[in-house]
Design a protein that fits this description.
The chain is an alpha/beta fold. Helix content is about 50%, strand content about 10%.
């Protein structure tokens, strides 16, 4: 017997609009999200490193409770804190995950957003299918050079190296892009092949980051049609809100030289799969 009837997974890629999509879909009456965008449950079980240890969950809960409480109506605070009690409880197993969605009611999908699922191995997807009767997967594509530059700036800012990036050599950038996961998260073709094999082409939607700027309303209709859920009227101003934006900086030539071979190979691999993506360095 399946724990979940339907689950929606948005698997990234990192810095390709996942947060924008989450903020819109979490208000949809047919989608059940949870207060933390990225639970990372299946990555914790099948990835290279765990993200749901007791210590990590305490730190994550502390951060999100402090973030969410000031914007939560008083009447909703008990429910929010009850959810975090479930999140902090153990052990972290299949029942734990199901408990996080116990208030989904009649919503059509439970949704998990995790950029790490772009790297999920086959046994992770097998676990997903073991728990879920129907799986839908969405995956956003962004210009590989642009995405990699955004990812690099984001990671450098986290580790306190953002201000030194302008002076890095080609060799320093190449090492950084490899060690930080920028190359790995930019392997669109490998991710697409993995999710198509796991869920089937009819259950996967590959979308373009550039459509957020071009026609966000049409993009949301595409998601709703793909999921066979109701069309809702989104406030136009919500489309313009950006989340987790990394400060723009023109990429130095050393970065472009270091990233170019991987970008070129990725564009060729995507073309062989029948997918295209803009390749530019627009902000």
């Amino acid at each position: 017997m399946y724990i979940f009837d339907r689950m929606l997974f948005n698997v990234g890629a990192m810095k390709a609009g996942t947060s924008w999509l989450y903020e819109l879909l979490k208000e949809h009456p047919d989608i059940d999200t949870v207060p933390i965008k990225e639970i990372h449950f299946f990555w914790d079980k099948h990835g290279d490193f765990g993200l749901l240890s007791d210590v990590q969950r305490i730190e994550t809960a502390r951060y999100h409770i402090n973030r969410l409480l000031p914007q939560t109506p008083l009447r909703s605070v008990p429910a929010l804190l009850d959810w975090f009690k479930l999140y902090l409880a153990g052990p972290v197993d299949d029942v734990w995950l199901a408990n996080l969605f116990t208030h989904r009611g009649e919503r059509a999908y439970c949704a998990e957003f995790s950029n790490m699922y772009a790297l999920l191995p086959p046994q992770g997807w097998a676990h997903v299918k073991h728990l879920t009767r129907e799986v839908r997967v969405t995956y956003g594509l962004r210009s590989p050079m642009q995405r990699m530059w955004s990812h690099a700036r984001f990671h450098a800012s986290i580790i306190g190296q953002y201000d030194t990036m302008a002076d890095w050599s080609v060799e320093t950038y190449a090492h950084f892009l490899s060690e930080s996961g920028c190359f790995r998260h930019g392997a669109y073709s490998m991710t697409i092949e993995a999710i198509l094999a796991a869920a089937g082409r009819e259950n996967c939607l590959v979308w373009q980051f550039s459509d957020i700027e071009r026609d966000p309303a049409a993009l949301m209709r595409t998601f709703e049609d793909f999921l066979a859920i109701r069309h809702v009227a989104y406030a136009p101003e919500t489309f313009a809100v950006r989340h987790n934006v990394t400060q723009w900086r023109t990429p130095p030539h050393a970065f472009i030289e270091a990233a170019a071979p991987a970008v070129r190979a990725e564009l060729e691999a995507l073309d062989r799969l029948g997918f295209t993506v803009p390749d530019d360095l627009a902000s």
